[in-house]
Amino acid sequence: MTNKIAILPGDGIGPEIIAEAVKTLECLKQKFGFDAELESATFGGAGYDEFGHPLPDSTLALCKESDAILLGSVGGPKYDQLERDLRPERGLLGLRSKLELFSNLRPAILYPQLASASSLKAEIVSGLDIMIVRELTGGIYFGQPRGIRELDDGQRQGFNTLVYSENEIERIARSAFDIAMVRNKQLCSIDKANVLEVSELWREVVIRVGQDYPEVELSHMYVDNAAMQLVRDPKQFDVMVTTNLFGDILSDTAAMLTGSIGMLPSASLDKNGKGMYEPIHGSAPDIAGKGIANPLATILSVAMLLRYSLNQSELANHIESAVGNVLNQGFRTADIADGGNSVSTVEMGDAVVAALGAIS
Ligand code: NAD
């Protein structure tokens, strides 16, 4: 059956890095007979430019009928003055909620070849391989009521609402336990149950779901301690599961442990495993158009797409080993070159395609 993949290049460096990821997909088609149809659509600022909305109807329709979505990145200074609902990031939130992509997988893996890029000592981070599972469609980013109101004394007050229902907690907990089962069977749930009622319920439901996964060792940690432990001894974690807001912050911290946000992919899945795949970084307006962006996070997002949505683990392994090989050969874009020689975005993409071609 032909797999349909929606390609959303987005803004800034998005089109540059997506072009390299598409090259790897085309290589998989030619070399390994991978059966896929790729169709592109505008999204984010580009969607606004073309259709007046960051999530055009035609783009949403394409995403709905596709088996998986590959996204570059969205946003940029050009769009910062738009009214909030028309900003590129709103398109992203809209797509996640319309497709019910509630489970955000954020791996933080430190390639041994790049150990010196981390700001932490090599012995603390070398061999790091953790997965943060972040709830993505609920919590304080979506809770109502929200807004800025004027108080009786004339002061303005900003307010947001943190809510989680039992079924929202249960489905993200199941997603995290399932992932722990195919990894090292350790799950740490992060909350703030000493202060927040929402966290009390979160903890209760996670424990209840855990009864269906007796092989998984479940632990709990307050978010402030988790932030501290991530930089003190990150290798103590296997899989972490947490809310939208806490996960946003902790996954960025974990990402920085690896030294380059240009290396890290992510996935956002619905309950059937359909997903959107994107690098964790943004549209990097400071380097857009210069041809120096690191395309590896996007190429590794293709590997996650193959593994989690298309059930093509072997092809995913091929991509990951091709990336390992180009790092072994010394290819580095500027962000991971540590002051040494660097290659362009296109040269890095070509190197991955050549490494894929060398796999027998
Ligand atoms: P950013 O991730 O775009 O950039 C942070 C720094 O990392 C910059 O110095 C940038 O040059 C560098 N960088 C990022 N990706 C890189 C890559 N592939 N190769 C080499 N260097 C890379 O974060 P920001 O500057 O805070 O945000 C810029 C824009 O991106 C904003 O409009 C923001 O809203 C948007 N954004 C989008 C997403 C997304 O599309 N999912 C995520 C985060 C931020």
Task: Please characterize this protein's 3D structure.
This protein has a domain at 1-106 and 293-360: Isopropylmalate Dehydrogenase, CATH 3.40.718. The protein has a 10-stranded mixed sheet, with helices on both faces. The chain starts with a strand and ends with a helix. The chain has helices at residues 14-32, 45-51, 57-65, 88-98, 122-125, 166-181, 197-210, 223-232, 244-257, 296-308, 313-328, 345-357, and strands spanning 3-10, 36-40, 68-73, 103-109, 129-135, 147-150, 156-159, 186-191, 217-222, 239-242, 265-269, 275-279. The chain is of the alpha/beta class. The structure holds nicotinamide-adenine-dinucleotide. Nicotinamide-adenine-dinucleotide binds at residues 13, 17, 73-76, 89, 92, 261-262, 278, 281-287, 293-294, 297, 335.
In terms of quaternary structure, the protein is: single chain
End-to-end distance, in Å? 24 Å
Radius of gyration: 20 Å
Largest sheet: 10 strands, mixed
Instruction: Identify low-pLDDT runs.
Output: none
Mean pLDDT: 95
Portion of residues in helices? 40-55%
